[in-house]
């Protein structure tokens, strides 16, 4: 079933069977209860005359339906159909997930896609029945619902973490859309906060930190455990030193009684800055000359749901072998990395990925969640991929590694630098060089006060502007490689290259191969991992060529693997 097609009978059969293959592809709205659900909802299947089907949660909410508390639509994996298409709507949805609409509004989103705001709105209404603003609003509401249900994060922090510009508008929007205030929704859901003593100043208290990522020295920590019988998370604090003490911190750094009260349902971060609140940039932490944000430090755990089967072992092995010293730490159990203002740790568990976040600004959370999902390729449809590749010469490999994923990246420019540095050298050699680049040009990680990252995670990956200004001499890079990296950084800084979803993949590849030192293999590899093109094929890859020859697979079979050639490449690489 494609994003363009919602056949009523097919959808209803999927709902009646609770078919997990369709989870995230559409939503079922029940006219008698005014509730919308995932196809896998355990509730009794409604009569066909009482249901409506919608492609996106925003479409259901715009029609007056509220999310189900049993199946929790906020946990749905993304629709993989948009990734296959890679068109304007698909790219726009990925940018909205990444916070582009929250950062710059719909006009900024349209500008990123090089189209007019009116044209973007027209495309969304034609495809989804609602405009991009409604989609962004639903994204914020669903993230807020997950935070209220799974964490003890104060309501004030939940409002800003989910992209709202004020607590007042957060409360009003929740009541208007869901029929509950945030506190009422949390109480009815029985989340962690409902099991702790109430505090009149809870909205101004920091949460205590969870167990630190690999390499972190012992400090104040929070242990969180998952309860398999429901979708909630329990947080318990074990103080080991004075850093675990909860301290009140006003949102604006002044009077504790004051809170942010920006009006408007969608207040961009640029608008927030105009009202006196600073916001860290996606790449480099706090803006030049700006004081740190006054929003509290937060350490919390969220569940990132996925489509099974999921080959977590292969994903972690791939990331661990390429982990850059100082930036990342990984083993066969988890993956950690430095992000602006803190750290994230991803740990595969039964049916989901546990995401542990410790950041100094909760407003980064939506972007962190979206990028972690892309990094682990959680929205892919493994059954559809296996059905397609399993009918080709790759059948034995597909059967041997069910649920194999294409690892993505946390940042498109970072992946492009990795690809350039890794040309014609071993993976281990590339790691060494990249570690030197990060140590030389990357910004030193300033962790949340309650959670020092220790020796393992020390730096952020340099952004394009930082790399452009950095002295890369003496790191073991050839002069030609340095020139390629500088040109790549210059074009990204100038906006000619957008490797985080804003640019058409074909245009991005054409721009990449125009950079001296970047050939078809490098451009295709970047498309495969950064641009999330499921049909990208690393032309001329020596390992793929040798592996196909060893298996007796002729070159013309490559065309038979469309539109999943990226996954075909991963199967061949993994089998080697």
| CATH topology description of the domain at 382-575 | Endonuclease III, domain 1
What's the tally of helices? Answer: 23
Q: What structural category arises from helix and sheet content?
A: alpha+beta
Largest sheet: 5 strands, antiparallel
Mind telling me the CATH superfamily name of the domain at 382-575?
Hypothetical protein, domain 2
Helix coverage percent: 40-55%
> Strands of the biggest beta sheet: in what spatial order?
7-11-10-9-8
Which range does the strand content fall in?
A: 5-15%
Cα-atom Rg, whole angstroms? Answer: 23 Å
Principal-axis shape equals globular
Distance between the termini: 34 Å
Give average pLDDT, whole number.
Answer: 82
Q: pLDDT below 50 for ≥5 consecutive residues: which ranges?
A: 194-296
Per DSSP E runs of 2 or more residues, the count of β-strands stands at: 11
CATH class of the domain at 382-575: Mainly Alpha
- Indicate the CATH architecture of the domain at 382-575: Orthogonal Bundle
Describe this structure in words.
The protein is of the alpha+beta class. The protein has a domain at 382-575: Hypothetical protein, domain 2 (Endonuclease III, domain 1, Orthogonal Bundle), CATH 1.10.340. The protein has helices at residues 8-17, 57-62, 80-85, 88-97, 100-112, 117-128, 132-150, 155-161, 167-178, 182-189, 269-274, 312-321, 365-376, 382-389, 395-400, 412-421, 427-441, 464-469, 479-493, 505-513, 520-529, 542-551, 565-575, and strands at residues 27-30, 35-37, 51-54, 66-67, 221-226, 233-238, 298-305, 328-330, 335-339, 342-349, 352-359. It starts with 7 loop residues before the first helix and ends with a helix.
């Amino acid at each position: 079933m494609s994003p363009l097609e919602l056949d009523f009978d097919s959808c209803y059969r999927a709902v009646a069977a609770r078919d997990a293959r369709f989870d995230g592809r559409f939503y079922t709205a029940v006219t008698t209860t005014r509730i919308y659900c995932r196809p896998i909802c355990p509730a009794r299947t409604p009569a066909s005359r009482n249901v409506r089907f919608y492609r996106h949660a925003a479409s259901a909410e715009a029609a007056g339906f509220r999310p189900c508390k049993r199946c929790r639509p906020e946990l749905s994996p993304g629709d993989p159909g948009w990734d296959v298409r890679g068109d304007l709507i698909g790219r726009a949805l990925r940018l909205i997930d990444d916070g582009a609409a929250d950062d710059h509004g719909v006009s900024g989103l349209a500008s990123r896609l090089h189209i007019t705001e009116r044209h973007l709105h027209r495309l969304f209404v034609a495809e989804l029945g609602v405009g991009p603003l409604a989609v962004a609003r639903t994204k914020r509401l669903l993230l807020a619902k997950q935070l209220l249900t799974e964490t003890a994060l104060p309501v004030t922090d939940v409002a800003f973490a989910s992209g709202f510009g004020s607590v007042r508008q957060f409360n009003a929007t929740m009541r208007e859309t869901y029929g509950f205030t945030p506190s009422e929704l949390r109480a009815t859901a029985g989340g962690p906060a409902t099991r702790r003593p109430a505090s009149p100043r809870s909205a101004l208290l920091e949460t205590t930190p969870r167990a630190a990522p690999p390499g972190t020295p012992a400090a104040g920590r929070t242990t969180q455990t998952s309860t398999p019988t429901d979708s909630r998370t329990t947080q318990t604090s074990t103080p080991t030193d004075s850093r675990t003490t909860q301290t009140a911190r006003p949102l604006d750094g002044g009077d504790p009684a004051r809170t942010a009260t920006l009006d408007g349902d969608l207040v961009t971060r640029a608008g927030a800055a105009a009202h006196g609140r600073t916001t860290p940039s996606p790449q480099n932490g706090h803006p030049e000359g700006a004081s740190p944000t006054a929003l509290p430090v937060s350490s919390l755990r969220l569940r990132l749901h996925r489509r099974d089967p999921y080959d977590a072992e292969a994903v972690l092995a791939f990331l661990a072998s390429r982990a850059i010293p100082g930036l990342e730490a990984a083993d066969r159990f988890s993956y950690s990395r430095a992000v602006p203002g803190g750290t994230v740790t991803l740990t595969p568990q039964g049916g989901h990925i546990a995401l542990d976040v410790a950041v100094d600004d909760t407003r980064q959370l939506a972007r962190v969640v979206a990028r972690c999902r892309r990094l682990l390729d959680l929205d892919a449809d493994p059954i559809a991929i296996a059905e397609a590749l399993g009918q080709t010469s790759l059948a034995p490999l597909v059967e041997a590694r069910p649920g194999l994923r294409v690892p993505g990246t946390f940042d498109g420019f970072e992946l492009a630098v990795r690809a350039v540095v890794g040309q014609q050298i071993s993976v281990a050699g590339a790691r060494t060089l990249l570690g030197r680049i990060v140590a030389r040009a990357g910004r030193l990680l300033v962790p949340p006060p309650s959670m020092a990252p220790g020796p393992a995670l020390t730096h952020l990956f340099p952004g394009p502007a930082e790399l452009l200004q950095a002295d890369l001499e003496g790191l073991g890079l050839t002069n030609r490689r340095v020139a390629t990296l500088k040109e790549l950084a210059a074009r990204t800084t100038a906006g000619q290259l957008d490797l985080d979803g804003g640019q058409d993949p074909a245009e991005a590849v054409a721009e990449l191969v125009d950079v001296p030192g970047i050939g078809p293999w490098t451009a295709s590899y970047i498309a495969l991992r950064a641009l999330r093109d499921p049909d990208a094929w690393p032309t001329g890859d020596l390992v793929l060529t040798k592996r196909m020859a060893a298996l007796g697979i002729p070159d013309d079979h490559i065309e038979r693997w469309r539109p999943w050639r990226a996954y075909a490449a991963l199967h061949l690489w993994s089998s080697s």
